[in-house]
Design brief:
Layout: H1 3-26, H2 30-53, H3 63-69, H4 76-93, H5 95-104, H6 107-125
Helix pairs in contact: 1-2, 1-6, 2-3, 2-4, 2-6, 4-5
Length: about 130
């Protein structure tokens, strides 16, 4: 794959995952919706990293670090929100953290982060 194909691969994955997160939200599977939301944003950022650096993104899940590598300018509030969303990746995967996220993962909580993440996704998918 050439560079543009790789970027497109990450962008398509981000969009597909976000659609799946919405389905999970509608199906009341809030924990996994939050996990997939994080994955979607991660993929969109990895497309931006690839676009900016012309190199593969580091194999990390930290949205704040990826946004920095991608050269995006973020506010303190955006960084805080990205840190929370990054946590969904860890909390949904590991049993000792999962219970805490399950308790937080109500419809309102998941919907709130779904809506916020939808805006981030639009931003992250914009070409530089």
């Amino acid at each position: 794959m050439n560079l543009q194909d790789k970027i497109q691969f990450w962008e398509n994955g981000a969009k597909e995952d976000f659609e799946f997160a919405e389905k999970l939200l509608k199906d009341k599977n809030y924990l996994w919706s939050l996990f997939i939301i994080q994955l979607s944003l991660e993929k969109a950022l990895k497309a931006r990293v690839l676009e900016k650096t012309k190199k593969e993104s580091p194999k990390i899940h930290d949205l704040v670090r990826l946004s920095l590598i991608a050269g995006l300018h973020t506010t303190k509030e955006q960084k805080r929100e990205m840190e929370i969303v990054t946590g969904f990746n860890i909390e949904a995967r590991y049993t000792d953290y999962k219970q805490g996220l399950k308790q937080k993962a109500t419809f309102n909580y998941a919907k709130r982060y779904f809506n916020k993440s939808k805006e981030y996704l639009k931003w992250f998918l914009k070409k530089n």
